[in-house]
């Protein structure tokens, strides 16, 4: 095939993928479902891939997206959030214990019951940070389709089911997305600093072969700038939603050429590990509520192993304390971002090392 014709075919496949992802993301996101832009994109692109459509996202676009996502995640950190970390030591300590228990128990379940390798099991069991986990998995050669299904099902179940559950308990109403801060000409200089610093940090982390370096480098640079109050600007809502839709397309495109039996087996692993994660989170949250007096809804949102953006959106929409919820989810993401890549990388090296006598 001539190069021009090949490029045209690639462009058509990319355009089809983005159109399908946009339809799915907007279809669910505009209903007010937290994480709907990501979840809707995943669902429709995955379905299209499973029925044989050529879903694809080029590598340069993926890398740019990881930097963008890391920059957006770092914007969750604020000086008030950092103060909140010091104000709730017992609650955060219980959260870290719960996340460690969830990661270990879910990984053990996936290995023992479903026969997964350790690297993929640990990444799939990471309690949150799906985009970070997938970025790490892509770099170390883990089973991205399996990880994506388990992580995606967790995001969908928590983002859709949690507000519904709180509403049934009379603790929440309909979730409406709060408007993001407008991007004005006066804030363009701060935006340029944010994007420049995040891009440089992402490149440096990637250069030094840090697992998920593009995303983590950008995230830590953005977190440092926002947490120290050097800048206040954040990515506009439409940029974040577009990135969520694009990430859903990347995840959904992983499902191409997957056999139905394999897909069903991954769903079993997803629901099983999800049940374990929710049970453990509920037990630790109940223990915390027994020890200290805190609002039930805030503890539920703070301990839910969902995406940071979705959980912060829920906290704001349900008029919960954003400092308490934000402090816990920042700690959780930092815990996952630091511990899981190191653990997965160690396991990947262990598995690649030849046995004695080979």
Give a verbal description of the structure.
The chain has a domain of 245 residues. Helix 3 crosses helix 9 and helix 13 runs parallel beside helix 15. The protein is an all-alpha fold.
User: In angstroms, what separates the terminal alpha carbons?
Assistant: 43 Å
Assign a percent range to the helix content.
Answer: over 70%
Apparent shape: globular
Approximately what portion of the residues adopt beta-strand conformation? Answer: under 5%
Order of helices and strands: HHHHHHHHHHHHHHH
Number of strands: 0
Mean pLDDT: 77
Q: Based on helices, strands and strand pairing, what is the structural class?
A: mainly alpha
Q: Spans of 5+ residues with little confidence (pLDDT < 50)?
A: 173-179
The largest β sheet comes out as: none
Q: Number of helix segments?
A: 15
Which radius of gyration do the C-alpha atoms yield? Answer: 20 Å
Q: Layout of helices and strands, plus pairs?
A:
Blueprint: H1 3-29, H2 36-50, H3 59-74, H4 79-87, H5 89-114, H6 118-125, H7 130-140, H8 144-168, H9 188-207, H10 213-227, H11 237-253, H12 260-291, H13 296-303, H14 308-317, H15 322-352
Describe what is shown at a glance.
The protein is 75% helix and 0% strand. It is mainly α and 358 residues long. The chain has a domain of 245 residues.
Features:
single chain; 358 residues; mainly alpha; 15 helices; globular
């Amino acid at each position: 095939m001539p190069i021009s014709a090949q490029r045209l075919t690639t462009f058509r496949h990319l355009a089809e993928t983005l159109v399908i992802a946009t339809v799915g993301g907007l279809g669910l996101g505009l209903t007010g479902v937290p994480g709907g832009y990501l979840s809707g994109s995943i669902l429709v692109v995955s379905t299209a891939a499973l029925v044989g459509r050529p879903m694809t996202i080029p590598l340069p676009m993926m890398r740019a997206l990881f930097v963008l996502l890391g920059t957006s995640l770092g914007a969750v950190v604020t000086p008030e959030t950092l103060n909140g970390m010091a104000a709730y030591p017992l609650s955060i300590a219980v959260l870290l214990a719960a996340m460690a228990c969830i990661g270990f128990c879910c990984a053990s379940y996936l290995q023992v019951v479903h026969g997964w390798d350790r690297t993929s099991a640990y990444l799939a069991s990471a309690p949150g940070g799906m985009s970070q986990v997938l970025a790490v998995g892509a770099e170390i050669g883990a089973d991205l389709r399996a990880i994506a299904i388990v992580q995606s099902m967790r995001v969908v179940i928590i983002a859709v089911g949690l507000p519904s559950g709180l509403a049934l308990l009379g603790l929440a109403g309909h979730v409406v997305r709060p408007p993001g801060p407008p991007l004005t000409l006066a804030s363009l200089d701060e935006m340029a600093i944010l994007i420049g610093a995040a891009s440089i940090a992402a490149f440096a982390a990637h250069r030094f072969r840090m697992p998920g370096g593009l995303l983590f480098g950008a995230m830590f640079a953005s977190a440092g700038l926002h947490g120290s109050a050097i800048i206040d600007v954040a990515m506009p809502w439409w940029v974040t939603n577009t990135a969520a839709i694009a990430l859903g397309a990347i995840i959904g495109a992983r499902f191409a050429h997957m056999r139905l039996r394999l897909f069903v087996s991954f769903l079993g692993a997803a629901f099983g590990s999800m049940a374990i994660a929710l049970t453990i989170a509920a037990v630790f949250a109940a223990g915390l509520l027994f020890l200290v007096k805190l609002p039930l809804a805030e503890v539920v949102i703070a301990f839910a192993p969902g995406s940071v953006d979705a959980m912060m959106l829920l906290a704001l929409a349900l008029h919960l304390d954003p400092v308490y919820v934000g402090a816990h989810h920042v700690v959780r993401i930092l815990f996952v971002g630091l511990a899981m890549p190191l653990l997965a990388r160690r396991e990947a090296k262990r598995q690649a090392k030849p046995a004695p006598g080979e």
